[in-house]
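JOB MANIFEST
job_type = single_chain_structure
chain_count = 1
residues = 342
[input]
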Amino acid sequence: MMRLPLFEFRAPRTLQEAARILDGEGTTVMPLAGGTDLLPNMKRRQQVPRTLMSLRYIEDLNHVQWDHSARRLGACVTLAGIAGDARFQNGLTALRQAASLVATPHIRNMATLGGNLCLDTRCNYYDQNYEWRKAINFCLKKDGDTCWVAPGSPKCMAVSSTDAAPALIALGARVRLVSRSGEREVLLSDLYNNDGLYYTKRKPNEILAEVLLDPLDGWKSAYWKLRRRGSFDFPVLSVAAAARISGSGGVEEARIVIGSAASLPLIAAEAAKSLVGRPLNADSIREAAVLAARIAKPLDNTDFDMSWRKKVTGEFVTCALLELRGDDVRSKRESFMRTGFH
């Protein structure tokens, strides 16, 4: 049985108090939201903070504010709460789908939006217990000096495995980061680095407090996820697509994001641009799928053959765009959810 290491515990009641704790204790303290990723990592000694700071009791982090001008989602809103909220539809469908496909119902009841956005990167050589990692002399991400995915690489190749980030990036989301010295607002797409070790630009003394979304009138969105089993598993390839479609059926604006193919979500800008001014017909969808698959270059760091994961990128872009067009893709989606993709 793997046990948690010893740690001290803090439970601030306000965001300001939490910011003071982070500022005072530095890198020895880690924020704890649902704990569905952090606690297993601690058992495997991948992360060993001296102090855990619970965010559960901070009321400001548990709200959903919904009005005509903006949507504000607190970082501690649970994924189950998002998945079960009927307001997340049309333009926001991708976020609801992404939340509903994370792990199991029990985990979604605990897992939070902010936690999923800050999810640790994953790798076959990293996501093992301490003894296994010690047997290979560890890896670059933790305790070692070699990335076993690409031994000649100067940086870690662990892969981004967040479901929420690709969906929210496709929706143009921003995040509010709070520290004792102030706060800043950044595009979610600018939060991530293409480095499995230093995978976010969130500073150690900052708390991801809130996700902000502009109104998405006229938009539609969809999220598709590849995993070994039809439930529970992390994504090993995902696609989020969003488009604003005119009354005549032409695409006025579009975004396509590829997840779990690199250490950060990849924005398929050329693929999205190719759709603008055109209807979602067979030709435009085929072209966008080819262009999106071109930027996906998976490595041998997760489940499934990496060349096959690249091929699925184009197939998932096609499925997502067909869904935006209004095609009935429920049977295909349900087959993925039931049996995975083999």
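[summary]
The CA atoms of residues 249 and 279 lie 6 Å apart.
DSSP finds twelve helices and twelve strands in the chain.
exit_status = 0
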